[in-house]
Amino acid sequence: LAQQVGAAGAGLAVLSGAPRGSFTGFLADWTSAAGGRLVRWEPFDQTALRLASRRIFGRDEVPSHDFAKAKYIVSFGADFLDAWGPTVEHQRGFAESHGFSREGGMAKHVYFAPRASLTALNADEWHGITPGSEASLALAMAGVLLGERGLTAPAGAPSVSAEQAAAATGLKA
Asked: Exposed, middle or buried by CB within 10 Å (0-12, 13-18, 19+), for 137?
């Protein structure tokens, strides 16, 4: 195998469905050093997330979040410690940001989701909400934050009041 890989040079392609992280970095470095290229595919395409990333960040990829640098984490149903995105990378970053020995203090984590998942159980605050109501809650919170700053949402942006979000989520306004 080593002889065939060495002889392949630029004809070498390594196919991988592994998520972003240290193993994928190793594969990319190893393949490049051998003269080839790493070809990645995503078994779960996550088209909507990729489209949002392209529209917001100009990058057609699933974003990776640096939880290690977070000071305050608010998650709306994204079970980032168990089943959402590159979980090992998220777990490492969360452990760093949520550690008591962290310089500058421990990050606070608030989670809104219908199920008591691994992410919910590790949150400083978990609020059980009605399934599918995460967007209403996020929009209502954005509206409150904009209002507190004397700002308004862009024209055409959806608007949800705190009362509407309360009715949707089962939480108090």
From this structure: buried
Is 98 in contact with 106 (CB distance < 8 Å)? yes
Computed over every residue of the chain, the mean pLDDT equals 89
pTM of the predicted model over 0.85: no
Give the model confidence (pLDDT) of 14-23 as tens digits. 988 877 778 8
How many whole angstroms separate alpha carbon 147 and alpha carbon 131?
A: 27
Structure token digits, residue 30: 């190893």
| Residue whose token pair is 């991988």 | 16
Q: Yes or no: say if 43 and 16 are a contact pair by the CB < 8 Å rule.
A: no
* Distance of alpha carbon 32 from alpha carbon 124, whole angstroms: 43
Strands 108-113 and 13-16: unpaired
β-bridge pairing 72-76 and 13-16: unpaired
